Amino acid sequence: MFGEFLNIIFKSIKLDKSLYTDNKNFGEASIYFAGIIMILDGIAGAVAANNIIKTAFAMSGLTAIITWLIWAIFIYVIGVKLFPDKQTKVSFKKVLTAVGFAHAPGLVRFFAVTPDLMMPIIFLTQFWIFAGLIISTKHILNLKSNFKSFGIVLLSFLIIAFLSISFVMSRMNMLPVSQIS
Q1: What's the longest Cα–Cα distance across the chain?
Q2: For 110-130, b where at least 16 C-beta lie within 10 A, e where not — what string?
Q3: 10-45 b/e with 16+ CB inside 10 Å = b?
Q4: Are 83 and 148 spatial neighbours (Cβ–Cβ below 8 Å)?
Q5: Which among 35, 31, 39, 95 has a CA at the least distance from the CA of 64?
Q6: What pLDDT was estimated at residue 11?
Q7: Read out DSSP for the chain?
Q8: How far is 150 from 59, CA to CA, in rounded Å?
Q9: What is the pLDDT of residues 23-66, one digit of tens each?
Q10: First vs last Cα of the chain: how many Å apart?
Q11: Rounded to whole angstroms, how far apart are CA atoms 64 and 58?
């Protein structure tokens, strides 16, 4: 079972499309594998961020799980409900699993142990994860076009970014202005 888990991680890091086309990768344990990848991705992000600000590892794991759900919801709604291809028939669980698998390149952040390595590794892994999401979306949703897959992932990202910025800005406005100096 551990070998299967490592195989999923390595295929995701290699951006191997067979990870998403082979149904044996979506068995009973797949959702758990995806969840573990997401938790480890969150912890790896905390390890990288600890070079600049102190971050709670448990909170990073929880945030990664929430992020995983949000990404999967938007990709599912946009790709399956709003803009499906004719052969797009997939369950939310499979989308959720694929999104988790696509985040495996984020585990490279464990190597961002110095401030000099942090920004390049985070930047690289974000694009790597984005590429993994595009590949997974194309194959899970049976899309014909890479462009459509890119559009679904980009639109999901833009909505998530807008909501995140709105949330942060609303929290900043709750602070009394007189105490900010």
Answers
A1: 59
A2: eebeeeeebeebbeebeebbb
A3: ebbbebbeebbeeeebbeeebeebbbebbbbbbbbb
A4: yes
A5: 39
A6: 93
A7: -HHHHHHHHHHHHTT-THHHH-GGGGSTTHHHHHHHHHHHHHHHHHHHHTTTS---HHHHHHHHHHHHHHHHHHHHIIIIIIS--TT----HHHHHHHHHHHTGGGGGGGG--SHHHHHHHHHHHHHHHHHHHHHHHHHHTT-S-HHHHHHHHHHHHHHHHHHHHHHHHHHHHTS-GGG--
A8: 30
A9: 888 988 999 999 999 999 988 888 877 666 676 677 778 888 99
A10: 54
A11: 10
What the block records as the tokens of 150 is 């890119």
Please identify which residue in the block is written with the tokens 């195989």. 7
Q: Which two tokens stand for residue 17?
A: 């499309």
Contacts of 154 (CB under 8 A, 6+ apart): none
Amino acid at 91: S
As averages over each run of 10 residues, the pLDDT of the chain (181 residues) reads: 90 93 89 93 82 70 90 96 92 95 93 83 93 96 94 95 79 53 49
CA–CA dist 118, 125 (Å, integer):
11
